[in-house]
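Hello,

Our lab assistant flagged a job as stuck in the queue for most of the afternoon. It eventually completed. Since we weren't sure the result was trustworthy after the delay, we are filing this so someone can double-check. Below is the sequence as submitted and the structure that was eventually returned. Let us know if re-running is recommended.
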Amino acid sequence: MSALSLLMMHLSRFSEEIILWSSWEFRFVELSDAFTTGSSIMPQKKNPDMAELVRGKTGRVYGDLMALLTTLKGLPLAYNKDMQEDKESVFDACDTVKQCVPVFTGMIATMTVREEQMMKAAQGGFINATDLADYLVRKGLPFRSAYKISGQIVAACIADDKVLETLPLEVYRQYSDLFEEDLYTHIDLKTCAETRISEGGTSVASVDAQIAYVRERLQA
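-- returned structure --
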């Protein structure tokens, strides 16, 4: 029951991401019509019902676990007739999870990922600002000063509705003479992801290793 609740917790959190990502404000993914329904009054709306149902079913599995824990909490050791109450909770939790997992995996397998929209959001979020500061540090500038300069540049970009990748080099050099043409390679978002090579990092090799590890655990 604890394992099932933990499984549903992960599915619920992932469902919340999918619900947000598929909203008009994000538009990171688009779910298949097979896993969505239309709105009763808004014809343009596509409701992520399966994700919402999985998120909702999580509370049901949690409730089954809590019911069983509450039944057991006051019992002495060995078997007591109270424990016949475990069947309803266990069977309900198992049935619920067995319904949610194939629906969830099908929803993920058929959804469309909008990479360009994700890239645009990542650029607008200035997640490469740290890499900008690291660039200056590698050029010999103390991190405290590099941090301040990076913050000033990001603030200017926000004010002018620009992103770091498209800011002209002459603008960068107004803040520091250390900026050179190689800057754009270092702050490219793909480069930023690839340089995170530690265990659990975002580089392709690191992610591949994580996937291989999970598959090995599942096979075992």
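-- support follow-up --
The delay was a queue issue, not a problem with the job. The result is valid. The chain has three domains: 2-113, 120-183, 188-220. Residues 86-110 form the longest helix (25 residues).
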